[in-house]
Amino acid sequence: MSMITRFLNKKLFILLIILTITFGFSAFINKNDTSFSELSFTNISSELLSSKDKVLRDVCLRKLRLEDSIDRPNAKNREVVDELELSYDGQISGDFSNLPQFQFSSSIARCFFAIGTPAVAVGDVNADGYPDIVKAPNLLYLNKYGERFELIKLPLPNSFQEDDGFLTSIPNIESWPGTPVIADLNLDGKVEIIFTNRISVGGQKIVVIASNDGANWRVDNSYRFNFGNSNNFPNSTTVTVFDFNNDRYPDILLGFTGGQNFLYNKERGKISPGLMLLLNKGNGSFEDISASFNLNEKLKYVLSDNLYVGSRTKFVDPIMFVNAVNTNDYNNDGYIDIYVAGDYGTGVMLYNNRGQDLIVDTRNSFLGHSLMGPASIDINSDGILDIFASQIHQKISTTFVCPGNIVSCDSDLGNNFWVSKGPGVWEEKGDVYGLREGGWGWGSVFADLDNDGRSELLQMSGQVLETSPAEVGWNHRRDKIRLFKEGSSGKFSDVAGESGLLLPFSYASVGVLDFNLDGLLDVVVASGFSSEPFVFINKSESKGNYISVDVRDKVSNAPIINSKVEISGGGKSWFGYTGTEGQSHFSNSDNKVRFGVGKLSMVDITVKSLDGVEINLKNQVVNTTIVVLV
């Protein structure tokens, strides 16, 4: 062998070593980086949601018209616009020439309100062990043993039904419901479905839909809601149930927007109450106890800038714009607190003072700018919940008036993630955890999608940025769904694209459920652009095991909300509260609490109900749902 040949072989050998080390190290880095994601989802909505009773989907066929009841200048005697159509890929066709601009002033063009709202709730409504889906206003998707969904159109009161001859059971734009809730209001072991109407000429209404067998549903008019003169205030966007006074009965918290429908409300002399707490008396009646807290006066001192709502108008008393709430015990005192994700700088924490008062947190600043979808988790394992809230990450032309009366302040702020520094103190660390950029954020939820013991964060996004009718559908911000996965460094990265979580429109609400009971959480999302939700089946490779806990009353078998569930094993621990994991913008969750536990095969479980019952279970086998009676 010549000297030249030996030299070349030596060089080739060194090059091979370098390449091996390089690619080996690269593979090692990728394996520990979130870009190397093994999460995988398949959109199976078309095969699961098909039905002979299928309602409008993918296309907006309803003719737009001005409602005479709106009483706006030049609103009457206007020609009806031509029919608009929305294709699956988000393209709108039709004649916009005589469409009034204010029809598009809301976040989602009102022509699509007729096919439902971007609001979902997840839960087992018929006690068969399989989670079902409710999409506002009145669509129940009954899970048929993990094989398909059966569509049931829930009944609606007359004031919610169409009045223009269609009689489709789909509300018109004057009766757009808020977030649906699945809860057992009277603790009889059978859940009800509750929602309110967000916009209605007739004033506030809480609708309760009940069933004896989970298949045949009726409007239940037996409940009495004492919130004064319903014509004195507008309608709520957010509906949440939680146990305020630790008596096990679900109380109802209503959140109101101060300005989105301001002109509509002002013309009728209505004032937004901001937050309203209806205490469940246990006898079928609910009493508004908000005034006893003097809450509106307290909020004035915190939200003192009285921010403007975009370029349209100013807040009226009180200065609240509630997009969503999380209800958890944030200060570990045994009472459930309220975190409010508010728009236009109205985010706030309200501590529950022993079920007798609400105290405004003045130590931490949760104001934000355009907070939308909250989600809570103990990210640093210090025993205190941390708080994520989605927020706009987009330069927009709308004139905002921000704290200090600064005009046109930066709207490109992005998501917030407040991480605990100890009891009662949180520090904003959105950049540190890689969660800042999420587009135009909406609903969010933390969930362990591959059972590795570390939760991912799902975040919805998207928005119509222009008010010109001709541009709706063209300038629509088609933000992708965000799926943030935590890497070995503790920082999150978005892996939605490679996981298959892709849809063409703006999506506002999100829920997680194990549709087919295969041990992996699936995903449901909803939009105002489609009457039906979209379901993604989780096809990921499970990296471990899970445990699910269902806390119920030992006498009635009713689900008990806000019970604290603690899981431990192998030197690791997790905790959460029943019925709160999926609370977010236009979203409510199942009462069960679920944890991925990695490679653990057995765990210890501690359940603490708010009224003082504690159950300790040792060495529980994983990959199952354990019912705990308290």
Mean pLDDT: 76
Structural class, from secondary structure content?
A: mainly beta
| Percent helix | under 10%
Q: Radius of gyration in whole Å, from Cα? A: 25 Å
Neighbour order of strands in the largest sheet: 7-6-5-4-42
Reported for the largest beta sheet, the result is:
5 strands, mixed
- The number of helices is 5
Amino-to-carboxy terminus distance: 84 Å
Low-pLDDT stretches are 16-36, 50-92, 94-115, 160-175, 259-264, 305-317, 397-401, 464-476
Strand proportion, as a percent range, falls in 25-35%
What is the 3D shape? Answer: globular
Using DSSP, what is the number of strands?
46
Summarize the structure in words:
This protein is mostly beta strands. It contains five helices and 46 strands. The model is unreliable at 16-36, 50-92, 94-115, 160-175, 259-264, 305-317, 397-401 and 464-476 (pLDDT under 50).
Secondary-structure topology with pairs:
Elements: H1 3-32, E1 41-43, H2 45-48, E2 85-86, E3 92-93, E4 120-123, E5 132-135, E6 139-144, E7 148-153, E8 176-177, E9 181-183, E10 192-199, E11 206-211, E12 217-219, E13 224-226, E14 238-242, E15 251-255, H3 262-266, E16 275-280, E17 285-288, H4 295-302, E18 308-309, E19 313-314, E20 322-328, E21 337-342, E22 348-352, E23 358-360, E24 374-377, E25 386-389, E26 401-402, E27 406-407, E28 416-422, E29 425-428, E30 441-447, E31 456-461, E32 463-464, E33 476-477, E34 482-486, E35 492-494, H5 496-499, E36 509-513, E37 522-526, E38 534-538, E39 545-552, E40 564-569, E41 572-577, E42 587-588, E43 593-598, E44 602-608, E45 614-621, E46 625-629
